[in-house]
Amino acid sequence: MKEKDFQPKPLLTKREREVFELLVQDKTTKEIASDLFISEKTVRNHISNVMRSDCKLM
């Protein structure tokens, strides 16, 4: 494998980025779920996953 072929794994998935972009716009989990056509539980799971992965980086 060539060096320039190497792609580092992104810190956040596309969906996690979408959730957090809406979160920083001060939207509620209910509003985010509605905007992204997912359940509130899924929104909370994305937030939790990011917080958990952030702790692993420390």
Textual characterization of the structure:
This protein is mainly α. It has a single domain (12-57), classed as Orthogonal Bundle (Arc Repressor Mutant, subunit A), CATH 1.10.10.10. It has 3 helices and no strands. It has helices spanning 14-23, 29-36, 40-57. Helix 1 (14-23) crosses helix 3 and helix 2 (29-36) packs across helix 3 (40-57). It is elongated and about 45 Å long. The relative contact order is 0.14.
**Biggest pleated sheet:** none
Number of E strands: 0
Low-confidence stretches: none
Instruction: Please state the second-level CATH architecture.
Output: Orthogonal Bundle
The proportion of strand residues reads under 5%
Mean pLDDT over the residues: 88
Helix content: 55-70%
What is the top-level CATH class? Mainly Alpha
Q: Do you know the CATH topology?
A: Arc Repressor Mutant, subunit A
Return the string of H and E elements.
HHH
Total helical elements: 3
Rg of Cα set = 14 Å
Distance between the termini: 29 Å
Shape: elongated
Task: Give the oligomeric state.
Answer: single chain
CATH level 4 superfamily: Winged helix-like DNA-binding domain superfamily/Winged helix DNA-binding domain
Structural class by SSE content: mainly alpha
Number of domains: 1
